[in-house]
């Protein structure tokens, strides 16, 4: 992912990692204002202490005491200027750090302000930029000692003190930089993980929509083929007795009502999955079938005039997992629908056997049609959808013509013990 998470405090991060709005510099947050104010006040208090202490006969820290009066005045002016530019260090940290080097040669009252500027550079910029500036700070400290030596501590002691102070600033700044980079990296990883999770949910929803589309195909193809079969009977028997016509019309009406009910059920699940968001990720209550529903399906087809033989040797059919039972039901339903379409009048044989630990083996076969096909159009996707269903749950699927000329649909579904 290429998106960058905007940190809470962009001034603590390198400029390359700082999120900037499209048209300007990053805005200063309330915390930034608070930190800048504290830094300015601290630097100003140090400037006041040094400037005021330089006028006293006794200076406890001996800061800014030695030197001619014009140098003390210059020290005070440059120190006050250093305090003022602290408000600009977020915008030009490196430029201000470079400008502070010659100022540090003449001004000790701006030492805290100069330290804040150097610290900002260490945190904002890579070590290749901050290390030379840190070395420059040590060099300017040495030049300051040469210009205004401290007789009590000596040149070596002052040099070591400067090195220790700059080293502490560098170490602290690098620690803060590394920590902020780690925080940013963790936030980016969290955002990436959230985006990947959303992608997985979207893929799961799409998969569930595909499954619902398969259900709609299976249900409607079955119902509409029954409607076509009953309507065809009325068309070829216009002289049938009124009682038979009324019975056929009632069956057509019931089948149409059932088709609408099945369609409403499937669409209701789809609508619920859209409303629930995550329900489509496999938690939606799709219409589930049981092996016990197969006799009802067969009887429905028989009432429409189909000849169906069933050989059921399944053990503990009521214990079949919902996925296995639904897949088996849809396979038999699609096979019966295809038989009505392409082999009207042919006898259909359904064989079921197996059980827990053994798996469910099923086959639906029918001989070639004795009459011309019904002419009901097909999409050619029913068997492909069944093959996909069976494969997804770890089963095997085959369909085709046997050596005897029968068309056979066969599948094996895994059934855990």
Automatic annotation (TrEMBL):
Keyword terms: ATP-binding, Kinase, Membrane, Nucleotide-binding, Phosphoprotein, Transferase, Transmembrane, Transmembrane helix, Two-component regulatory system
Domain (Histidine kinase/HSP90-like ATPase): residue spans on this chain: 326-415
Domain spans labelled Signal transduction histidine kinase subgroup 3 dimerisation and phosphoacceptor: 208-273
Entry keyword DNA damage: no
Protein name: histidine kinase
Aminoacyl-tRNA synthetase keyword on record: no
Transmembrane regions listed in the UniProt entry: 33-50, 70-88, 95-123, 153-175
Species assigned in the record: Luedemannella helvata
A Pfam cross-reference name: HisKA_3
One MF term in the entry's GO annotations: kinase activity
InterPro entries noted in UniProt: HATPase_C_sf, HATPase_dom, Sensor_HK_TwoCompSys, Sig_transdc_His_kin_sub3_dim/P
Lineage: Bacteria, Bacillati, Actinomycetota, Actinomycetes, Micromonosporales
């Amino acid at each position: 992912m290429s998106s960058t998470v905007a940190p809470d405090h962009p001034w603590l991060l390198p400029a390359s990692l700082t999120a900037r709005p499209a048209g300007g510099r990053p805005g200063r947050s309330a915390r930034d204002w608070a930190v800048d104010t504290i830094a300015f006040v601290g630097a100003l208090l140090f400037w006041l202490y040094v400037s005021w202490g330089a006028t006293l006969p006794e200076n406890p820290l001996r800061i800014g005491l030695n030197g001619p009066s014009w140098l003390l005045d210059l020290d005070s002016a440059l120190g006050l200027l250093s305090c003022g530019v602290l408000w600009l260090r977020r915008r030009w940290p490196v430029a201000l750090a470079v400008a502070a080097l010659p100022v540090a040669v003449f001004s000790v009252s701006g030492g805290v302000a100069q330290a804040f500027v150097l610290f900002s550079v260490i945190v904002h910029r890579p070590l290749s930029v901050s290390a030379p500036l840190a070395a420059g700070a040590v060099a300017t400290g040495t030049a300051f000692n040469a210009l205004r030596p401290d007789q009590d501590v000596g040149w070596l002691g002052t040099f070591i003190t400067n090195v220790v102070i700059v080293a502490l600033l560098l170490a602290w700044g690098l620690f803060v930089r590394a920590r902020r980079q780690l925080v940013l990296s963790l936030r980016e990883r969290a955002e990436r993980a959230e985006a990947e999770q959303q992608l997985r949910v979207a893929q799961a929803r799409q998969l569930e929509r595909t499954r619902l589309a398969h259900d709609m195909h299976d249900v409607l193809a079955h119902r509409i083929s029954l409607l076509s079969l009953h309507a065809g009977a009325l068309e070829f028997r216009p002289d049938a007795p009124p009682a038979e016509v009324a019975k056929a019309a009632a069956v057509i009406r019931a089948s149409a009502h059932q088709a609408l009910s099945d369609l409403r059920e499937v669409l209701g699940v789809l609508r619920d999955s859209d409303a629930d968001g995550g329900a489509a990720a496999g938690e939606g209550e799709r219409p589930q079938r049981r092996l016990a529903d197969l006799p009802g399906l067969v009887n429905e087809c028989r009432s429409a005039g189909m000849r169906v033989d069933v050989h059921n040797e399944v053990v503990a059919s009521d214990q079949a997992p919902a996925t296995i039972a639904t897949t088996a039901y849809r396979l038999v339903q699609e096979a019966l629908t295809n038989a009505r379409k392409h082999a009207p009048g042919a006898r259909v044989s359904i064989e079921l056997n197996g059980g827990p630990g053994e798996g469910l083996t099923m086959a639906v076969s029918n001989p070639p049609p004795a009459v011309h096909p019904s002419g009901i159009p097909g999409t050619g996707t029913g068997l492909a959808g069944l093959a996909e269903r069976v494969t997804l749950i770890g089963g095997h699927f085959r369909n085709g013509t046997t050596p005897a000329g029968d068309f056979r649909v066969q599948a094996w579904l895994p059934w855990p013990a």
